[in-house]
Amino acid sequence: MGRSLGFGVLDLMGGGWNTIISGLMLYFFTTYGGVTATQSGSIMFIARIVDAVVSLFIGPLTDNLFRYRVGKKYGRRHFFLMIGVPLLLLLIFPLLFIAGRGYWWYLFVYLAVEIVIAMILIPWETLPTEMTDDYTQRTKLSSTRMFLSATATFLVFFIPAQIKSTNNPNAYFITGLIFAILFAVAVSISYFTTWERKLTPEFLAELEARPKVSMTREVMQSVKSFGQAFRNSSFNKHLAVYLLSFTGKDFFASALTFYAVYAVHESESVGLYLQALSIVGLPVTIWAGFLMVKRGPKFLWGVSFSTIIIAVLALGLVYLIQPVGILAWLIVICAVYQAGRAVLEFTPWNVYPFIPDVDKLISRQDRAGIYAAVMTFGRKSTGAVATLLLGWIMDLGGFLEPGAASGQKLDPSCVSGCPLVQTPAATHTIAAATVFGPLLLIGIALIISRFIYLNAETHDVLRAEIDRLEAGGSKDDVTAEAREVCEKLTGHPYEELWPDQLPEGAMALNE
What we know:
By secondary structure, the protein is mainly alpha-helical. The chain has one domain: Growth Hormone, Chain: A (Up-down Bundle). The protein has helices spanning 2-8, 11-33, 37-64, 69-74, 78-89, 103-125, 127-131, 135-164, 171-193, 201-208, 215-228, 233-263, 268-276, 281-294, 297-321, 326-351, 355-363, 368-396, 424-449, 456-470, 480-490. Helix 3 runs parallel beside helix 6 and helix 17 packs parallel to helix 20 (456-470). Keywords: Membrane, Transmembrane, Transmembrane helix. The chain crosses the membrane at residues 7-29, 41-58, 79-97, 103-124, 145-163, 169-192, 239-264, 270-292, 299-320, 326-344, 370-393, 430-453.
């Protein structure tokens, strides 16, 4: 458990950063940064798309870093963790939360933060595959990670809510400094408490014997590998559920503070505290860890998505009815939502460590970094689209940013980042986006999740078949059960699996 905590603590940064993006940045940019909602969305869209493209190459780079001296000395994965702490967390990150800097400042700083965080997260996400092949042990690693990620989600909203409630004009900058220190400590702990597969002399000698490949050719091979990842049926379904569900919860997190301030006329601190109800996700994540082993991901996704759908529909009713004691209703509904969100965030990254095993049967290669890179690329791309879309929808509905000359303050005593009275059309737009955006995305994810076949039992069968083939077993001796499981997980006839011919430059796992 100590090792699991050492691994998982880095997701204080991973989960925390994604929560900052989805829950804080759009509101901070529009309220304190001096940019419109559409401009704010475009900052995140442009930066995340550029970063997503860069991230595609980080995965293969970590897979192949053992070719170079730094990889041999510090590790393929750990080298990036080591350089990330001073490069990003203690130098660049706090600059993002300086108020009033305008569009170009936020765009360039945001882009720098995104790239370096990806440089840390992608190698780190492959470590469960590096550290163990056991389903239960990987689940322990991932469960601990998601527990700490849920903690980060709480801290991201609780800390600025506490500081903001003191009316400190530098509340967000102080928040940025706190997060920079917290994230730096988390990355450092993971660096010193995790490990990678050993580079034996025999393995290194075999690597050195490979022909040198030009950078252009290596990039082309990487792009080809990214495309080959989609030959994996389990990965395709998993990726679709992951992207749809996470984009849905990002959309909700971006909209909720606007909903609290403008649709139901609560304070900004209340909006942040509603997000901080993610604290209920901590015990829920522990419960989900047990159910992941007993019931599998399909059950967890069903519970999570159904709970979220009920919660967002309830928020729609609150807006329409405007009941007495509206804050109490919001607390109950958001607590229910956060329980469902915790399971949503827990499940995909507990399934991911077993996806490369499915690929092993298809390709006979170790390509965990490529799958992590593709998932990161998709996550950042869709998240960027969701934020841009929300900003555009808000401006389309006539949203007035704080500071607009034609606006009237909601609170006349406000002196900084003051919300303005919105037109009914703008208010309806915010409420509708908060409800129907997540509802559509989570609903589609729920349908796709019903067709996912990968769980503890099918993974055991898959792993046993890989071990048998690695030991020199014949494909002709496959059992009927193993054949059926392998074909369902991969989406290919068994005869096409574990190929005799490997791509040029690839190494068979049993060599």
